[in-house]
């Protein structure tokens, strides 16, 4: 029996430009096909521009701004990648607060590629293990994480992958973890000593 996300609301937090399209559309489709309700959240109302690497691709309607989004209304969070997306969204204070609240509430967080930058900005990686695009390795370790080079890594309620090629495994684990309500690993408080 396939996992079901019936009625679960999943926030996709992105910048208004620079999202790697497949890293938005493939997890979105997986959530919808499992019965979940994905919603696109970005700093500005209107549309978000996706890219296929460096080439502009499709535009997607924004459902909520980061300033208007309420973390308590969502069951899970997806953070797509894209270099420009990851770099821009981590500078949006409302997005960082939203992400930190989701993490503090112990809800599933799925992140791919450069999407992990906002988790570092939100001080949400201390003592956690994850993967990402390799160039984030040092950034994530400096934020207190243990970095691994794997297709998909699941650390309690944190699901991570490296790149678009990893999306089939990423989407499978995203749906499974959200459906099963995996036991979250509480993130250490800001400034807490790191476990080795």
How does this model look, in words?
With 196 residues, this protein is an alpha/beta fold. 29% of the residues lie in helices and 26% in strands. The chain has one domain (9-180): Rossmann fold (3-Layer(aba) Sandwich). It has helices at 21-33, 83-89, 93-104, 117-121, 137-142, 167-180; strands at residues 9-13, 17-20, 37-42, 47-52, 55-61, 64-65, 76-79, 109-112, 129-130, 146-147, 152-155, 158-161. Helix 5 links the parallel strand 9 (129-130) and strand 10. The protein is globular and about 35 Å long.
Brief descriptors of the model:
Rossmann fold, 12 strands, 196 residues, 6 helices, globular, alpha/beta, three-stranded mixed sheet, disordered C terminus
Q: Give the helix tally.
A: 6
Strand content: 25-35%
Radius of gyration: 15 Å
Largest sheet: 7 strands, mixed
Short description:
The protein is an alpha/beta fold and 196 residues long.
List the helices and strands and how they pair.
Elements: E1 9-13, E2 17-20, H1 21-33, E3 37-42, E4 47-52, E5 55-61, E6 64-65, E7 76-79, H2 83-89, H3 93-104, E8 109-112, H4 117-121, E9 129-130, H5 137-142, E10 146-147, E11 152-155, E12 158-161, H6 167-180
Parallel strand pairs: 1-3, 1-7, 2-4, 3-6, 7-8, 8-12, 9-10
Antiparallel strand pairs: 4-5, 11-12
Helix pairs in contact: 1-6
């Amino acid at each position: 029996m396939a996992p079901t996300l019936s009625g679960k609301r999943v926030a996709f937090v992105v910048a208004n430009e620079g999202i790697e399209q497949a890293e938005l559309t493939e997890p979105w489709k997986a959530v919808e096909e499992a019965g979940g309700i994905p919603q696109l959240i970005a700093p500005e109302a209107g549309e978000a521009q996706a890219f296929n690497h460096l080439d502009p691709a499709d535009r997607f309607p924004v459902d909520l701004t980061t300033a208007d989004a309420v973390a308590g209304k969502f069951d899970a969070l997806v953070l797509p990648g894209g270099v420009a997306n990851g770099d821009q969204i981590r500078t949006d204070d409302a997005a960082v607060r939203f992400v930190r609240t989701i993490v503090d509430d112990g809800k599933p967080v799925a992140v791919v590629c450069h999407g992990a930058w906002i988790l570092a900005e939100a001080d949400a990686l201390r003592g956690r293990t994850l993967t990402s695009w390799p160039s984030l390795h040092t950034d994530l370790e400096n934020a207190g994480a243990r970095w691994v080079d794997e297709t998909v890594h699941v650390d309690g309620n944190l699901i991570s992958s490296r790149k678009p090629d990893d999306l089939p495994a990423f989407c499978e684990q995203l749906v499974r973890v959200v459906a099963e309500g995996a036991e979250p690993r509480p993130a250490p408080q800001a400034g807490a000593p790191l476990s080795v």
